[in-house]
Amino acid sequence: MDHPLPAHPATSNHLQHSRPYQLIIQGKVDPTHCSLALQYWLKRKAEAHLSPWLRLISQEINLPCHQISVRGQKTLWASCSSKKNISLNFKLLFLPPHLVRYVLIHELCHTIHLDHSQKFWALVEHKEPNYTVDRPRT
User: Which CATH code for domain 48-134?
Assistant: First the structure.
């Protein structure tokens, strides 16, 4: 995400966004409420941007997935289940696009190999030849 997210105090008690990259939290500024509201907003933004991108890459590299969900995992960028369901972390919104693309391809490769075996890494390299340069570090 290349846009700053300014915060503006307001007078009524609801959450709104009047511009694509502006979030306004109105009412009492309770840190817990603000954190939950921001997570909800980020989850919706990630669903709107990352899910279609994952579907597009899935078609591009011919590795289909089933369901896509967005969460706020503490230690994972994303995960893939044995049923080929992929869960994305909304924090991916804060990574550069080339790193997000790598994460999406990485998870799509898990639809074939659920481990990090040599076969898995060979598939990642086949689908994304620059993967060693593009891997995000945690």
Answer: 3.30.2010.10
